[in-house]
From TrEMBL:
Residues 26-119 form the Methyltransferase type domain. This is Methyltransferase. Pfam families: Methyltransf_11 (PF08241). InterPro entries: Methyltransf_11, SAM-dependent_MTases_sf. One of its GO terms (molecular function) is S-adenosylmethionine-dependent methyltransferase activity. Keywords: Methyltransferase, Plasmid, Transferase.
Length: 232
């Protein structure tokens, strides 16, 4: 089996999908970085986020175009029926409570036009970055549950799987502080654990990262699953 390619998530998606003009909902958009990247490629994007601090940061960032952000959760999207060409879960489906993952995918189907696509990008529980982040919270079980929910949605006929791509996503940080801030934004409990474990986390960060061009990199194995809503 060949080694997975090292590619940014946006490049993997853009190579497979013409984004210009598409109406996209980015569910669990965080600080909005991916919303702005998609907007920069000509998409019409709305970001959905439930975290107050992340939503505030997304709205305060320099806009890339006419993107906008709304507060909401994946299992109850604040979007009209058949209003999107594409729904994206960029490393976010595993953050939906396990008991609501199926609901989140059903909501994605509701807001999609017939023939629309769902892009589920999930980090794989392996590699140096997982070794680091599991010291804050071990997500192996919830990531497995997210993949299982995708498989179940296809088995139930909600979607047809168009393609699955496994690749290495380069995760970049300016330094440990940037990593700690990013981890702490997810919720208050994580922020507290990051602060409490700073000494160990800082040491492991520098041990596991690869320094390139003045930045700290981790190759995060990831799986992109492209699903299509049946046309009828």
């Amino acid at each position: 089996m060949s080694e997975p390619i090292r590619r940014k998530a946006l490049d993997v998606i853009a190579e497979r999908l013409d984004l210009a003009g598409r109406r996209i909902a980015d569910v669990g958009c965080g600080e909005g970085g991916f919303v702005r990247a998609l907007t920069g490629l000509g998409a019409q994007v709305i970001g959905v986020e439930c975290g107050a601090e992340m939503l505030e940061r997304a709205r305060a960032a320099e806009p890339a175009g006419n993107e906008r952000y709304v507060e909401g959760v994946g299992q109850d999207l604040p979007l009209p029926d058949a209003s999107a060409d594409c729904v994206v879960f960029m490393n976010s489906l595993h953050h939906v409570p396990v008991e609501h993952m199926a609901d989140a995918l059903a909501e994605a189907a509701r807001v999609l036009l017939p023939g629309g696509l769902v892009l589920v990008n999930e980090p794989i529980a392996d590699g140096p970055f997982f070794q680091l982040t599991r010291l804050v919270e071990d997500e192996e079980e919830v990531r497995a549950a997210a993949l299982a929910s995708v498989r179940s949605a296809c088995a139930a006929g909600l979607f047809v799987e168009r393609e699955e791509v496994v690749y290495l996503n380069p995760v970049r940080f300016d330094g440990y502080e940037a990593f700690a801030t990013r981890m702490g934004l997810i919720d208050a409990a994580r922020k507290s654990r990051v602060a409490a474990g700073e000494d160990v986390l800082r040491a492991r960060f520098h041990e596991l990262a690869t320094l390139r061009d003045g930045f700290f990199f981790f190759d995060q194995p990831a799986r992109l699953t492209i699903l299509e809503k049946p046309a009828s």
